[in-house]
Specification:
The chain has strands at 11-14, 28-35, 40-46, 59-65, 70-72. The protein is an all-beta fold and 89 residues long. The protein has a 5-stranded antiparallel beta sheet with strand order 4-3-2-1-5, with no helix packed on it. It is globular. It starts with 10 loop residues before the first strand and ends in a 17-residue tail after the last strand.
C-alpha cells in the first residue's frame, strides 16, 4: 500500500470543523511549514485559490494541524498501480 505523505506546498482540505478558528470541514488551504519532523503541519488559508476566486490573496488564517485533520487534494488521476488507502477513525 502506498503511503500518502503530506508535503510542503500540498493543497489540502480540512477533514474536521475548527470553530475556534472559524474554519469548516472542506475548506482548502496550503501546507506552508512542516512541524515536529512532519508530525504536524502549518496550513495557510487565504482568499485566493488557483485563480478561481481571486481577491486580495490575503491569508485569513494560519493554523498548525495534525495529519488526521487534513487530506491532500489531487488534481490528476491516480496512477493505475496505486492502491487506495483505507483510513479508519
Amino acid at each position: 500500500m502506498t503511503k500518502n505523505t503530506i508535503k510542503l506546498l500540498n493543497v489540502v482540505a480540512l477533514t474536521v470543523d475548527l470553530p475556534e478558528y472559524n474554519l469548516h470541514r472542506g475548506q482548502v488551504g496550503t501546507v506552508v511549514e512542516l512541524l515536529a519532523d512532519g508530525a504536524a503541519f502549518e496550513v495557510e488559508f487565504s482568499d485566493a485559490f488557483g485563480g478561481l476566486r481571486l481577491r486580495n490573496g490575503r491569508t485569513y488564517e494560519s493554523v498548525g494541524l495534525r495529519p488526521e485533520q487534513i487530506m491532500v487534494l489531487h488534481f490528476e488521476p491516480a496512477s493505475p498501480d496505486s492502491v487506495p488507502e483505507m483510513v479508519t477513525v
